[in-house]
Amino acid sequence: MKLSVGIVGFPNVGKSTLFNAVLKKQQALTANYPFATIEPNTGIVDVPDPWLKPLSDIVKNEEQLKEPPPIIPATVTFIDIAGLVKGAHKGEGLGNQFLSHIREVTAICHILRDFDDENIIREGASDPKTDLEVIRIELALKDLETLNKQKEPKGKLNLLEKERWTAVQLFKQGLERGVWIKNIIEQEENPNKKQILQSTAKQLNLLTAKEEIFVVNIDEEKLQKNDLDQLTAYYQKLLNEPKEKIIVMNNKLEMDLAGFTPEEQQILLKEYGLEKPALERLIKTAYNTLGLMSFYTAGKKEVRAWTIIKGSSAQQAAGVIHSDFEKLMISAKVVKVEDFIQYQGWNNCKTKGKIRIEGREYIMQENEVVEFNIGK
């Protein structure tokens, strides 16, 4: 599934440091000068998942295997994109490259600097609220440029052409009032009209239609001396965004943590009064923001988390495993992962009446263990 998160922000705010942290290796250049990143770096990271190991252990016992089957987690693709500066929509800095690379991602992860370090150059960055406003203005101006290039269709028009042009006009009016296209789409209550808005935004690859998450990169000292929930509440009010989409962290600390063993991580985290690395929450937040969820297959060959879009049918889920399965699927044997673990596998779940047989149109729920019945 070509779904990805673009890491964006002003130069020297910690984008590449964060990228290296999520990949747990030094892949992107981190340097104290603007535009250290020119071509985007791409990396695929595992989604933290507490269910996979228990599932693997259960399959080992139920199938009487010598070793637990291999575990394959779900993943999220992160892309480290060149720093933005004011005037990017007109090509300032690396603006044209920056904006073209953002068009290719599904969601935007804003990195906002709120740390003081006189040794790290500020290149346009001011404070989290102002920086976010500037970046959003640049994205909105670029979208307006795209929309203004659209020509009103002439002659005898079909309904779809009329609706698409109406959507273009609605988007232009909204952006001129400072309303993001994503919000325009969310506010539309008519399902058919919403679908037209979504398809038009996707067709034009509009930047302000993308989902967002927010990472505030703060000083180690501030992180150590303050309660994380209080810090998140502060930035929630400052940025006027849902707390579920705000992750407060020190990017350098997270990069350092990535090089330690889990035991060593716990010792260091304790010094900062933290329970676990912020990266886990970032990756999970990115996964949820993209509108994704997991289902599991658990067999001798492997235990695997498969990624699907929320609202997918069982038939569509089967197609993620293999394209032929989508056409040939007959039914699905389904059990909640909690039941699968509680009753230790398929056999006991069957005895306890926890297994359901669902058809092709069944809407998948999060965290189900599934076995598809495929025809020939």
How are the elements arranged and paired?
Layout: E1 4-8, H1 15-23, E2 41-46, H2 52-63, E3 71-72, E4 75-80, H3 95-103, E5 107-114, H4 128-148, H5 159-176, H6 181-187, H7 191-204, E6 211-218, H8 220-225, H9 228-239, E7 246-249, H10 251-257, H11 262-271, H12 278-289, E8 292-298, E9 303-309, H13 314-321, H14 323-328, E10 329-336, H15 337-342, H16 346-351, E11 356-358, E12 368-374
Parallel strand pairs: 1-4, 1-5, 3-9, 5-6, 6-7
Antiparallel strand pairs: 2-4, 8-9, 10-11, 10-12
What does this structure look like?
The protein is an alpha/beta fold. Helices cover 43% and strands 19% of the residues. The chain is built from 16 helices and 12 strands. It has helices at residues 15-23, 52-63, 95-103, 128-148, 159-176, 181-187, 191-204, 220-225, 228-239, 251-257, 262-271, 278-289, 314-321, 323-328, 337-342, 346-351; strands at residues 4-8, 41-46, 71-72, 75-80, 107-114, 211-218, 246-249, 292-298, 303-309, 329-336, 356-358, 368-374. The strands form 3 sheets. It has a 6-stranded mixed β-sheet, sandwiched between helices. Strands 3-9-8 form a 3-stranded mixed β-sheet, with helices on both faces. The longest helix has 21 residues, at 128-148. The two termini are 26 Å apart. The model is unreliable at 25-38 and 91-96 (pLDDT under 50).
